[in-house]
DNA sequence: CGGTAATCTAGAACAAGTTTCAGACTTGAT
DNA sequence: ATCAAGTCTGAAACTTGTTCTAGATTACCG
């Protein structure tokens, strides 16, 4: 029946999506080439520089195939972000933050991530814009990014069993993180400002953990 | 020299933009028609339904003229949002929030705004997506929206002389507000969830005000 | 091997945002 | 009233995301 297997869609991780039929090696390679080209183009030029025709050409794939793998430009860029986030998470695991309190560690972690983004501001632009511009059709993928981000923050807090209040705080931290990134990317906030925002929101953690009812 | 220019009639608010050459009455009328058409189309269909050709036709204006007034679709939608925000602010002034603490009043105000958006979810979609998708070329306009939002929140807090810490909290509240809206609009968070996020972030205000010097 | 269904390719075609242009129209000044 | 300069209009053109099609390839089953 099938030839080169079924329609691909998300991650390469086996322990992730439920309905992701496995990919041929050649397909996996194509997918990887596409994501690489996407990140490459995004790296200089940002969101606008990632043009589907160029991605296709650059990754040696027909336009139609590109769209079979990633049903829209936003899907593509969100997938690119998933990729980068995984990479970041691995890096962070190797060198956990050293702060005293949970709030400090989270702030340190986010600032580290922020510095990584500063090294590739155009790539950051492409990914973050895609993420916030995504409509309902990309919800699953965006949600996956969100879960990954949550995991990173919880890791930094060093909690195995967060309370609902703490999870609420994490949600707000994520909101702030995304929105602060946007203001920075669009030139409306300085790097210093972003740091302040992050540090401010991280104080919410103190509010829930040490003294409060847990 | 100029033609339909120079009549210093009304931009309504005299204390707003610095370098906005005043508009003729006919121009003011055009501008208003355009914004009305924009809101109308956004009202059903959201971001995608606001098509520049339709806006032009619907507001009895040539496409080129539309682009003279609003240099891009995002500019147009952000301007639409400015419009709506002013309206909201006026409404809110009439019925200030009744909560005991500043945090309660801010949360109440934002929830009220949220309910207003729920009545026109498509319009909300168009405006918020435009806002977060805006690139640097729209910074001034987006900044104006941000200032207006800040003003609304500060009003709710009832402060005439906010401390830097309080301003920081307000910034984070705004971040959360925008990002929470996005998650709601893209179907990744429920209304209840948004309420929780808002209430959570508003606790930051308690952190700055009651104990410290006011 | 041969068959066949799914995949891939190349390229045209379509949609909506944006730009451009020639000509008609308005406005304020002389 | 006339004129110069800025505005508006209508329409075509251009760009880039997205869809579609016909035919060549590929993977797997028997």
From TrEMBL, chains A, B:
<feature type="compositionally biased region" description="Low complexity">
    <location>
        <begin position="8"/>
        <end position="18"/>
    </location>
</feature>
<dbReference type="Pfam" id="PF00440">
    <property type="entry name" value="TetR_N"/>
</dbReference>
<dbReference type="InterPro" id="IPR041642">
    <property type="entry name" value="KstR_C"/>
</dbReference>
<dbReference type="Pfam" id="PF17925">
    <property type="entry name" value="TetR_C_20"/>
</dbReference>
<dbReference type="InterPro" id="IPR050109">
    <property type="entry name" value="HTH-type_TetR-like_transc_reg"/>
</dbReference>
<feature type="region of interest" description="Disordered">
    <location>
        <begin position="1"/>
        <end position="28"/>
    </location>
</feature>
<keyword id="KW-0238">DNA-binding</keyword>
<feature type="domain" description="HTH tetR-type">
    <location>
        <begin position="28"/>
        <end position="88"/>
    </location>
</feature>
<feature type="DNA-binding region" description="H-T-H motif">
    <location>
        <begin position="51"/>
        <end position="70"/>
    </location>
</feature>
<dbReference type="InterPro" id="IPR009057">
    <property type="entry name" value="Homeodomain-like_sf"/>
</dbReference>
<protein>
    <submittedName>
        <fullName>TetR family transcriptional regulator</fullName>
    </submittedName>
</protein>
<dbReference type="InterPro" id="IPR001647">
    <property type="entry name" value="HTH_TetR"/>
</dbReference>
């Amino acid at each position: 029946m099938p030839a080169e297997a079924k329609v691909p869609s998300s991650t390469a991780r086996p322990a992730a999506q439920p309905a992701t039929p496995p990919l041929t090696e050649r397909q996996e390679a194509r997918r990887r080439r596409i994501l690489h080209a996407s990140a490459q183009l995004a790296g200089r030029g940002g969101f606008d520089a990632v043009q589907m025709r160029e991605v296709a050409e650059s990754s040696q794939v027909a336009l139609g195939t590109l769209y079979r793998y990633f049903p829209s430009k936003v899907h593509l860029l969100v997938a690119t972000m998933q990729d980068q986030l995984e990479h970041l998470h691995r890096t962070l695991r190797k060198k956990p933050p050293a702060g005293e309190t949970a709030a400090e560690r989270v702030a340190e972690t986010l600032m580290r991530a922020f510095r990584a983004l500063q090294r590739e501001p155009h790539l950051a632009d492409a990914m973050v814009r895609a993420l916030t511009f995504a409509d309902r059709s990309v919800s699953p993928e965006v949600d996956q990014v969100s879960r990954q981000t949550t995991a990173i923050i919880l890791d930094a807090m060093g909690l195995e069993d967060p309370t609902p209040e703490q999870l609420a705080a994490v949600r707000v931290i994520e909101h702030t993180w995304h929105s602060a990134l946007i203001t920075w990317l669009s030139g409306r906030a300085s790097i210093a400002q972003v740091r302040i925002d992050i540090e401010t929101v991280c104080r919410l953690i103190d509010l829930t953990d040490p003294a409060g009812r847990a």
